[in-house]
């Protein structure tokens, strides 16, 4: 039962995997369960998944603002273009589960929360 | 309207303090992709905001000073003083206006640079593309230097330049190189990505005699290229090396834990987009479209991954 409530949107550029966050909505086009991150409102009403929304979005990539939720759409459009224009190497997570075993990088200090956007 | 969520505006950054990244012409930090995008955008918007303020101030200063000069001239005329004093007052206020104009522009140039427009466009796109492949909550390290490349400290070598063109007197080519940015991040499969982006400029100083006037002239011509290097450390625990891995444009090495793969893409506007090449411009960094640049950079990671096979 739990499986059906997880977000089924595919994410990643090289290592594709399913989002798997809690699916709080359903795509009104393909009936796929989707999380809030991957829910996009068409004309402010219809809830669509990223895939269906991107298919129907006619904007050019240069018209899309990256500092907004629209960057998911921009990324999907660019990835589709990359698939068409380049010989593309992709690893599917479900085929290679070991890719997602947690890797610790001891040398990488990622805990100093010095994240103000005015840092320089 | 399909637009999702809010966007940043320059008004949001109107009250922000002068950015150190602008003053220092560089930065060094670790942030998530979205915070980097916000940072780049903030740099651009702050400059835009300061530029609008500067233009408004200069306009106001000119109008006020010229107005003051005219009023003074009228008053002097009304009091029946020598007309030369009226003209002198206008000239004086004009001189003050020119000085105000000059100092305001100088202060603006010292405090702000347009070097971040490039990061805002190109690196925002690059980071957005790799965002979902990064380890969750991980941050990208990035260091940047947006100082001018054609400076003594970046001079690599000088060469004599000769030409058989009519009127040519002497010439010299000067080669400059500066690392614009470097950084690193971790992918969710444990791979470590390091990248490096460099600007190389050839400045050609040509002394010649003008065809018509015969006067001596010095002409400056530029050519710039931008090598982007990606070095990937791919964990041996998860991947094996492909037997026929293409090695023509890729260097492969290994240590105990990683396959180390290095791929380089040299952006050269003269070769790739000659219509946009202008020999009189020092930098051609913005001659490539954002989409083209980001896809070409992503393809370096793609090419590196193409050398390995995941262990099932």
| Percent strand of chain A | 15-25%
Provide the gyration radius of chain A in Å.
17 Å
- Biggest sheet record of chain B: 8 strands, antiparallel
The main sheet of chain A comes to: 3 strands, mixed
Broad shape of chain B? flat
Average pLDDT of chain A? 78
Number of DSSP helical runs of chain A = 2
**Tally of contiguous helical segments of chain B:** 6
Strand order, largest beta sheet of chain A: 1-2-7
Number of strands of chain A: 7
Bin the helical content of chain B: 25-40%
Low-confidence stretches of chain B: none
Can you write the helix and strand succession of chain B as a string?
HEHHHEEEEEEEEHHE
Short summary:
Chain A is built from two helices and seven strands, in the order E-E-E-E-E-E-H-H-E. Chain A is an alpha+beta fold and 120 residues long.
Q: Any overview of this molecule?
A:
The complex is a heterodimer of chains A (120) and B (312). Helices cover 18% and strands 17% of the residues of chain A. Chain A is built from two helices and seven strands, in the order ββββββααβ. Chain A is globular and about 40 Å long. The model of chain A is unreliable at 108-120 (pLDDT under 50). In chain A, the strands form three sheets. Chain A has a three-stranded mixed sheet, with no helix packed on it. A two-stranded antiparallel ribbon of chain A has the order 3-4. A two-stranded antiparallel ribbon of chain A has the order 5-6. With 312 residues, chain B is α+β, with helices and mostly antiparallel strands. In chain B, 37% of the residues lie in helices and 31% in strands. In chain B, strand 5 (192-209) and strand 6 (216-235) form a beta hairpin. In chain B, helix 2 packs antiparallel against helix 3 (83-111). Chains A and B meet through strand 5 and helix 2 of A and helix 1, strand 1, helix 2, helix 4 and helix 6 of B.
């Amino acid at each position: 039962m739990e499986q059906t409530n997880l977000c089924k949107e595919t994410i990643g550029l090289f290592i594709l995997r399913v989002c798997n966050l809690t699916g709080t909505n359903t795509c009104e086009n393909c009936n796929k369960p989707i999380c809030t991150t991957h829910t996009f409102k068409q004309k402010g009403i219809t809830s669509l998944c990223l895939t269906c929304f991107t298919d129907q979005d006619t904007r050019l990539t240069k018209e899309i603002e990256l500092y907004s939720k629209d960057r998911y759409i921009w990324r999907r459009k660019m990835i589709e273009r990359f698939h068409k224009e380049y010989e593309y190497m992709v690893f599917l997570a479900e085929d290679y589960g070991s890719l997602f075993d947690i890797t610790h990088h001891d040398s990488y200090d990622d805990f100093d929360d010095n994240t103000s956007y005015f840092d320089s | 309207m399909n637009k999702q969520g809010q966007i940043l505006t320059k008004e949001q950054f109107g009250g922000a303090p002068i950015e150190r990244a602008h003053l220092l012409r560089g930065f060094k930090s670790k942030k998530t992709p979205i915070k980097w995008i916000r940072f780049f955008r903030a740099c651009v918007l702050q400059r835009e905001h300061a530029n609008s303020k500067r233009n408004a101030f200069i306009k106001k200063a000119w109008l006020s000073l010229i107005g003051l000069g005219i009023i003074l001239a009228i008053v002097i005329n009304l009091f029946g003083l020598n007309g030369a004093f009226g003209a002198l007052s206008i000239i004086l206020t004009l001189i003050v206006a020119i000085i105000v104009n000059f100092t305001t522009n100088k202060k603006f140039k010292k405090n702000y640079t347009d070097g971040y427009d490039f990061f805002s466009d190109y690196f925002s796109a690059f980071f957005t593309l790799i965002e979902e492949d990064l380890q969750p909550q991980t941050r990208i390290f990035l260091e940047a230097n947006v100082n001018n490349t054609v400076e003594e400290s970046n001079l690599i070598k000088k060469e004599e330049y000769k030409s058989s063109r009519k009127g040519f007197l002497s010439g010299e080519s000067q080669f400059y190189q500066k690392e614009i940015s470097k950084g690193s991040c971790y992918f969710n499969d444990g791979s470590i990505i390091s990248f490096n982006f460099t600007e190389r400029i050839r400045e050609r100083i040509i002394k010649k005699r003008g065809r018509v006037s015969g006067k001596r002239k010095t002409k400056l011509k530029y050519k710039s290229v931008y090598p982007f290097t990606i070095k990937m450390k791919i964990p041996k625990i998860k991947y094996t090396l492909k037997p026929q891995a293409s090695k023509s444009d890729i260097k492969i090495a290994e240590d105990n834990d990683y396959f180390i793969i290095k791929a380089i893409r040299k952006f050269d506007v003269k070769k790739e987009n000659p219509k946009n090449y202008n020999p009189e411009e020092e930098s051609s960094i913005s001659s490539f479209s954002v989409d083209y640049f980001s896809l070409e950079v992503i393809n370096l990671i793609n090419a590196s991954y193409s050398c390995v096979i995941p262990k099932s």
